[in-house]
Structure formats: C-alpha cells, structure tokens
Amino acid sequence: MNETLDESTAHLRATADAYDAVADLYADFARDALAPLPLDRAVIAAFADLVRGAGPVAELGCGPGAVTAHLRDLGLDAFGVDLSAALVAIARREYPDLRFDIGSMDALAVDDGALGGVLSWYSVIHLPPPEIPSYLAEFRRVLAPGGHLLLAFFEAEGGPVAAFDHKVATAYRWPADDLAAAAGAAGFTEVGRMLREPGPQERFRRGHLLMRAGE
Asked: How far is Cα 143 from Cα 35, in angstroms, rounded to an integer?
C-alpha cells in the first residue's frame, strides 16, 4: 500500500492528525489494554477460532499494533491498517515481524474476497454515522463468503447514536441493534454479541458484534 493517505473527507485527516499528535502516549495506553479484560479477550478468541485457517485477517484501525500482535499469538495470519502514520511507525518498530499499512478503512488495498476475517476494535467509533454503511460495505467486499467480522464499539443504551468527548477525536456510541442492522444491510448475518458493563476506569458499556459475511 502507498505510504500516503488520500483523504476524501475532512474528518479522516482530523482523526489521523489527532492520533499522530498523541501517538506515543496512546501506544503506552494500548500496549497492555487487553490484559485486565477477560471478556474482551474471550470474544477475540472466539473470533480467532472461527477464522483460523480461513485466510489472512486484517485489523482495521490497528493503532500501535498490540491487538494485531494478539491475533498473531492466537495463530492467525494477521496484518494491520491505520490512518495514523505515527501509530503505524510505532507498530512496525514494536512488532517488526508483522505487516502494518497506512490507509483508510473505506478504501483498502485488498482484493475482493481475499480475507478470512476482519477485526475492527473500537475503530468505527470515529466515523460519522452516515458513513458507516460505506465502511461496512468495504469490510464485506474484502471478506470471503463465510468470513467473519468482529466489531467493538461503545454502546448507547436505550437511545440513538450519540457523539461523545473521546480523549483523542470525536467519537460515537451506537445502540447494538442499530449497528447490527447496518451490518445486516451490508451483507452480514449476526453470529453473536457480547455486551459488558464499564470497568472501574471506563465510562460506557462496551459492545462486541460477531458477524458472518453472506454468500
């Protein structure tokens, strides 16, 4: 993939710039973020069981690469993609055995049906809600029929999609049913979901949707 990013909308550039500005701090935060989260690790493990041996797996919005490395440790042929050049540079430095590309999740340099799995770990949260369908359609394009998608997000319990003051860039909370419906419209079928209450240092409920790409 080219080492440049052609932003089609202002929010992509703003999001990339925001993460570039705090890349080192964010990498320190993200490095061991999964360690105290057994339910999150469990849903990733379930995803890994479903996609292992089905082809390459992309973590879209990979940040500094810790979750991509976790996928590798679970036996997957994993690579990462992120908007932030600074975070990709950190990922390449910390995990030199893995592939990390600079790019946008809605325009992937991946052939149709080339992937067995896609993981979006709190990356769609920064998308303006009207743009979610085009991103989900791109996820469906790159997945082989029967491939799996795992979406992690902040849940908006009992209300509409809502913006909130994320520490890095504007982000959105989604009702689980609404996000599942958007994925369904893009050609996915829900396999299961895991919703959990916020931990001591968290503000919002966490949502995880496991989806299968249609034939």
From this structure: 29
Residue 194, helix vs strand vs coil: strand
* Largest CA-CA distance found in the chain, in angstroms, rounded: 43
Beta-strand relationship, 162-164 and 143-154: unpaired
The alpha carbon torsion through 94, 39, 53, 149 (nearest 10 deg) reads: -90
The stretch 118-144 carries a mean pLDDT of 94
- Name the DSSP letter for residue 25: H
Is 22 or 124 the better-scoring residue by pLDDT? Answer: 124
| pLDDT tens digit sequence for 170-203 | 789 999 999 999 999 999 999 999 999 988 888 8
Cα angle 131-136-141, degrees, rounded to a multiple of 5: 130
Compute the distance between CA of residue 177 and CA of residue 187 in angstroms, rounded to an integer: 15
- What does the DSSP assignment read for 104-166? -TTS-S--TT-EEEEEEES-GGGS-GGGHHHHHHHHHHHEEEEEEEEEEEEB-TTS--EEE--
Q: What pLDDT, in 10s, does the model give residues 72-105?
A: 999 999 999 999 999 999 999 999 999 999 999 9
Q: Which helix (H) or strand (E) holds 210?
A: strand 206-213
